[in-house]
């Protein structure tokens, strides 16, 4: 398979993982910048992430419009991806979703969403809240054009995640594994924080030093990162689509590892 085939397979895997982990449902999407053309990105046509196949992946420009002729409907909110990829050359993958557990933190201003668990460190020390009404007044609360997308990207700034008031979140990663990982742990971190609030007393957030220590030495194909990707892909039933650019080993589900020693060379 070519690199581009692998990239598209990875994007299918990412869609299925986000669906299986309840980050997205019928709505929500993930995009990936074109590896050879930073002005283009890949995203599914308008279909639920759980159902995404290779042929559903379309190539868009940073204006949110299709590069090739496309008659199938596209996601209305594709401008979120276009605007963030436009504003952040360091970012290669974007997720937008409506995960329920994060919603209260975009609505109530008293408790900021910040990392409270080790796996939540990836969301970063600061999670800004973007309110579409601040600039655009009464809308249908969806991001349906570049002006709205750019305003959201501006609020996101250099952070990894922005909450969208009364709507969901947008997250940005240097790789697809990174953005999927942080998007999976974002609602879990929100849930832990919400439950801790119910227990009462002072909330102890991860310190800046702890967050920095967790994020130091990031590598998209480190054993620890790959372990999660491989686990999630197999759980989502797409382990057969896995590719590993660094040439590392991929676990094959159903293989009987107990007898491996008999076949050692
Ligand atoms: Zn949305």
Give an account of the 3D structure.
It is a single chain. The protein has 265 residues and is of the alpha+beta class. It is 35% helix and 12% strand. The protein is built from eight helices and seven strands; from the N terminus they run H-E-E-E-H-E-H-E-H-H-E-E-H-H-H. Strands 3-2-1-4-7-6-5 form a seven-stranded mixed β-sheet, with helices on both faces. The C terminus is likely disordered. It binds zinc ion. The site of zinc ion has 6 residues, from loops.
Main beta-sheet annotation: 7 strands, mixed
End-to-end separation in angstroms reads 27 Å
User: What fraction of residues sit in β-strands?
Assistant: 5-15%
Order of helices and strands: HEEEHEHEHHEEHHH
In total, the number of strands is 7
The helical percent reads 25-40%
Low-confidence segments? 257-265
Query: What is the CA-atom radius of gyration, in angstroms?
Result: 19 Å
Question: Which descriptors would you attach to this protein?
Answer:
265 residues; alpha+beta; seven-stranded mixed sheet; globular; disordered C terminus; binds zinc ion
SSE map:
Elements (H helix, E strand, L loop, with lengths): L2 H18 L8 E5 L6 E5 L12 E5 L16 H10 L5 E5 L5 H5 L21 E2 L1 H5 L9 H11 L4 E4 L3 E6 L2 H24 L8 H8 L7 H13 L30
Parallel strand pairs: 5-6
Antiparallel strand pairs: 1-2, 1-4, 2-3, 4-7, 6-7
Task: Write a concise synopsis of the structure shown.
The protein is an alpha+beta fold. The chain has eight helices and seven strands; from the N terminus they run αβββαβαβααββααα. Helices cover 35% and strands 12% of the residues.
